[in-house]
Amino acid sequence: SPLGRVRHLPQIGSSDRIIASKARRQAINSPVQSTLTDMMIWAIALIEQEYGSNTDLEVVAQVHDALVAYVPIEDAPKWAARLKEIMSNLPFEQLDWTPQLKFPADAEAGPNLAYLSKVAPLALAA
Hints:
Blueprint (H helix, E strand, L loop, with lengths): L16 H35 L6 E6 L2 E5 L5 H13 L19 E2 L7 E2 L8
Antiparallel strand pairs: 1-2, 3-4
């Protein structure tokens, strides 16, 4: 992947067409999926570095390319803005990589994962 992940697929040359076909699909999907996952891990590290444990934010999980965190519901727009800023502006120049695409982030909040609604982030002060 552009961020350095290598996926080894030794079964891509299998004589079993089903196994080889599965490995070929993995070869196609892995660069995209692993890059987005690595970007989320990087964002979480930057979020933890910036906000640490001295806030109302508690990062609890990563699901593929999504961050799951606990925040007070009344502060969701504030946290949405802060986290969106970090996730949408990863310092790719540190890796000498200039992505051809933008990677926008959005936010949802709710009492649990079954009842999420879009959150409009507050505008950050300049």
